[in-house]
Design brief:
Length: 601
Amino acid sequence: MDLQTTIYIFVGLSFALYIGIAVWARAGSTSEFYAAGGSVHPITNGMATAADWMSAASFISMAGLIANMGYGGGLFLMGWTGGYVLLAMLLAPYLRKFGKFTVPQFIGDRFYSKSASTIAVMCLLVASLTYIIGQMTGVGIAFSRFLGVSSDTGIYVGMAIVFAYAVFGGMKGITYTQVAQYIVLILAYTVPAVFISLQLTGNVIPQLGLGGSYVGTDMTLLAKLDSVVTDLGFGKYTTQWPGSMLNMFMYTMSLMIGTAGLPHVIMRFFTVPSVKDARSSAGWALIFIAILYTTAPAVAAMAKLNLHATVNTAVKAGGDLYAPEASLKNEDRPDWMKRWEKTGLLKFTDKNGDGRIQYYNDKTKNEVAKGKAEAAGWKGNELDVNADIIVMANPEIALLPNWVIALVAAGGLAAALSTAAGLLMAISSAVSHDLVKGVFNPNISEKNELLAGKVSMAVAIVVAGYLGLNPPGFAAGTVALAFGIAASSLFPAIMMGIFSKKMNKEGAMAGMLAGLFFTLFYVFAHKGIFFIKGTEYLGLIGGANSFFGITPEAIGAAGAMVNFLVAFLVDKVTKEPPEHIQAMVESVRVPRGSKLVTGAH
């Protein structure tokens, strides 16, 4: 069976499975639509949370980012995983004990203000819509390569699939669909990694293979990779450091607290029966997430080594990496390169006209490597590889069987669709439950609220599709900005709502607005304000003029500091919360029967 037919079968079967589950588990009430009836088993919820959390960024992009950044790419592992631990320990159990459906509802009730809830909805929509751009883009990438259609057509198909199981299934349908999507995506990620680890190190466990020996040599895999990339003028893989230490710290912190503030992940903890189950499901989710996150560094290193070995035959055979015969002839390039060239994510430009692909570092400061490259006729790097193809092309680069390649296609789509569905659920709940019911029509019937939820979900899908087809320049290519927005706006409000019974509504609202607008201003000013047909206005800040060298993707941590500072300053000059609100905060945070609650000693 040829590759294309195999891909169609795997992807088609996975889509049929998702839609079938949604029909079986369709929501019949607002409780089922928003929180799956609060009856999901902790292990099931842990698996669904992992799928919800591991987006296209985790599946498609993270290993590619690590492959490009080397050691410094660990900031994504530290930030995203650390943030999930923060969420599981400090936020999820208390929010579950509070017993509401959504984050804006918690903020509105805790800060005794519909205005606070409305501001939280605004922050949620900005963060979720920014995040969903990356998911729809991931759907387009996967479809354009594996189904032989344009990325635009891929986004339309993805919209239709999400519509089929999210609108009718609600949180109940999404939950059980995400369990299936987790199984698909984790198999798609780990199976190729096992094959490639065996090929390169003889070890069946990729995590151990990463620290193992490269086949046929006395060198470790990482030592071999370091040797290859430094000889070709690239930075040493195991010691690369992106930018300043301050920027890396702020970037990691932004990802961490942004993770803890993402509403579509927090919502998952409202679907279990009790606080104990919320803690348990958080633990299970961390285990399920760790399977992929501990595999990613191995996938990154092995894919990078395989890519160099494909383009430069001397990587495997030994000898001079700059010898003319070491570079791959254009006419000999493998089929996988030709397939990915059609997507525009891999480009070969023969700058010196010798008919060979010279993959050396354009910006090298290694004078020895530069001299060797120039002696070989080099006139600049001739291969441009988008980081997003590292995982998706990994089994093709390693010449694995067609069924493995098809499995990866299904996995990439599962990762993007699962998170897109979770984000759409958060958007729908915010609009129908927090705005329509909470602000505009408190007396709406359950039937009409459920209808409003489904209509707002459908509208959100259309908006998400439009943003995927026409991504704003400031957000294209990264979801880190969404984490920064959540970090600077929602996370501080949730933290103060749980752990500061004296924080009042004026402080919380001022803090959310200050953090959000500070972050958005910095992003727009740095990245550019006007975008016309790909033409970018350079903005107010850039390069050396950045704020202490902090990149826009890392500014969320500074935005959170602004949020906390403004909130506490405003709180000091305004009236403290009513006694019943302070008592409510204590009852949520402190276990029932505690001496702190009763006042007994």
